[in-house]
Amino acid sequence: MATLDVTACSRWYGNVVAVNDVTMTIGPGITGLLGPNGAGKSTLIGMLAGFLPPSAGAVTLDGAAIWKNQDVYRAVGLVPEREATFDYLTGKQFVVANAELHGLPDPGAAAARAIGTVAMADAQGRKIGEYSKGMKQRIKMAAALVHDPAVLLLDEPFNGMDPRQRLHLIALLRSMGAAGRTVLFSSHILEEVEQLANHVEVLVAGRHAASGDYREIRRLMTDRPHQYTITSGDNRALAAALVADRSTAAVSLDGDSLRVEATEFLHFAQLLPRVARDAGVRLYEVTPVDESLESVFSYLVQN
Ligand SMILES: Nc1ncnc2c1ncn2[C@@H]1O[C@H](COP(=O)(O)OP(=O)(O)OP(=O)(O)O)[C@@H](O)[C@H]1O
Q1: Which residue lies with its CA nearest to atom 23 of ligand 1?
Q2: Would you put residue 206 in left (φ > 0), alpha (ψ -120 to 50) or beta?
Q3: Which residue of 60, 105, 218, 295 has the lowest C-beta tally within 10 Å?
Q4: Is 3.40.50.300 the CATH number for 4-218?
């Protein structure tokens, strides 16, 4: 069982603190590393892959420090975010080269197995420069899998993929997680993480903002105060009826609409139609305000 431990870990680049005192444990199965751009996801993955040393704290695999530890490198595969691959090589040459770098006894057989896993056998003889974005992603994945690592790290693997490629990658990662591998993938898109990860770690501005299964993270996000703009047949009557409830934190009349801040998302979602019906007020439009992922993240960090 491969378990990654990040303990009081920080990483800075000059004055920029990219990862700030983060502690988390990533075990077998699929973990999503969620955070907006610049949150420090790539930096954390770089440390987990042994490409970067932590500036402070520790990053270990099954208790062994990762930095400059060849035994650990043999157990870790990385699919980096950057596009750049060796465009002049064929897919097969690229994966075989990776197998050779790992010193595998039969690089050809290992490459064939990894290429088969990502369903690239038909295209393996073509140059990588001619591949689509999704194919490049798959051949990078084959290179990361060629030494059959217990840990697979993927930095924004869904970027630029079309829906079909996305489904293929989801199925592939699911099978790796089910086989007991420790799979960590980063994303700034909530829905990607929701579809795939059993466990979610949230990074915001270098800090560890939340951790848990997807439902817990979702609850944290939905329990925050929500603002709505409502238009109805009688905004004043609706405001008077809403303000009496504990979940209504603030109500204000704003031109032809009503602004409401509610503290409990689910309670308010049930309350609003009931209150409107009882008061004989017809609801025309209910629009959530400021539902952007950035605002959700900043709420998580403040708390
Ligand atoms: N080599 C570097 N030198 C200086 N600053 C860096 C370097 N790499 C990253 N940073 C900074 O560290 C912070 C975290 O960057 P990082 O790439 O780890 O975040 P990220 O969550 O992966 O974001 P993105 O999804 O945009 O890649 C950012 O402020 C970034 O500008």
Answers
A1: 38
A2: left
A3: 105
A4: yes
- The pTM of the full predicted model, rounded to 2 decimals, is 0.79
Tens-digit pLDDT profile for residues 27-52: 999 999 998 888 899 999 999 999 99
How far is Cα 39 from Cα 19, in angstroms, rounded to an integer? 8
For 113-158, what is each residue's pLDDT tens digit? 999 998 899 999 999 999 988 888 889 999 999 999 999 999 999 8
Cβ atoms 214, 193 nearer than 8 A = yes
Backbone angles phi, psi at 144, to 5 degrees: -70, -25
The CATH class for the domain spanning 221-302 reads alpha beta
CA 182 to ligand 1 center in whole angstroms: 24
Of all protein residues, the one whose alpha carbon is nearest to atom 25 of ligand 1 is 37
CA 13 to ligand 1 centroid distance, Å: 9
Task: Note whether 139 and 128 are within 8 A (CB).
Answer: yes
Structure confidence by residue, pLDDT tens digits, 156-175: 998 878 888 888 889 999 99
**Centre of ligand 1 from the C-alpha of residue 48, in Å:** 15
**What residue segments make up the domains of the chain, in order of their start?**
4-218, 221-302
35 lines ligand 1 (CB under 6 A): yes
Q: If you measure from the C-alpha of residue 102 to the centroid of ligand 1, how many angstroms do you get, rounded to a whole number?
A: 28
